[in-house]
Amino acid sequence: MIDRKNVVSGGSTGLIERMPCGNVRKCAYPDIQTRKQSLRDLEREFRIYQRLPRQHDRLLQMIKYSPEEGLFLQYMPRGNLREYIQTAVAGITISQRLQWTHDAAEALHLVHSYGIIHCDVKPENFLLDSAYRLKIIDFSGSSFDGILGSAFEGTRFCLPRSWDDESTVRTDLFALGSTIYEIMTGRQPYHDLPDDEVEARYSQQIFPEVQAVHCGQVIMACWRGEINTAKKAMGLIQVEIEKVQ
């Protein structure tokens, strides 16, 4: 039974409930029309956590799982990166933003190295730990072992393609570029344009100006497909970090 007063968020897969033990529980929606798909997505996420390292700085720790109870995960009280950037009272330093970009690329490299395509890379899917470092989350719609992902990026994070095209390392890296853009500028790419205009510009390889943005070359390389691994992005970001040290 879900205690509604302890629900901290909800998404396409189900509800996230804070438990008395201090962890969170991700459980399927009770509605009969969506429950079957929610349970499939939770099972997928459990299988991915089983494949990934049990302990890693860029991952939440999975505590336990059962179809009846749901997926129990480590709780991160600082919330997700997008909300933090939007609500931070004190200014966020360039050094901190650069560290986040490196963390995001590192997390994606880890996921890809285990044969997993995330399918929905964005600042909302990175949580902050007590040291303000990032952990990647939400594998409920991810792709692995030939199982197609059920997730799809939002317009500003999406490499233009058909809805039935398979997600790939390339599509994740495109989304990483948009994620880095948001980390560095505090805004999503083309935040002031309607979705259809953004899609049209992306389809023509017309992207926001990034010449004056830290990691601008990395962002553009992700968008244009000039980077083929997240590890390569990590190396380029490290160069940017060393410039400001």
UniProtKB/TrEMBL annotation:
Domain of life (superkingdom): Eukaryota
Domain annotation Protein kinase: ranges: 2-245
Pfam families: Pkinase
PROSITE patterns hit by this protein: PROTEIN_KINASE_DOM, PROTEIN_KINASE_ST
Cited InterPro entries: Kinase-like_dom_sf, Prot_kinase_dom, Ser/Thr_kinase_AS, Ser/Thr_Kinases-Pseudokinases
Key words, A-Z: Kinase, Transferase
GO MF entries: ATP binding; protein serine/threonine kinase activity
Protein name (database record): Kinase-like domain-containing protein
High-level lineage: Eukaryota, Fungi, Dikarya, Ascomycota, Pezizomycotina
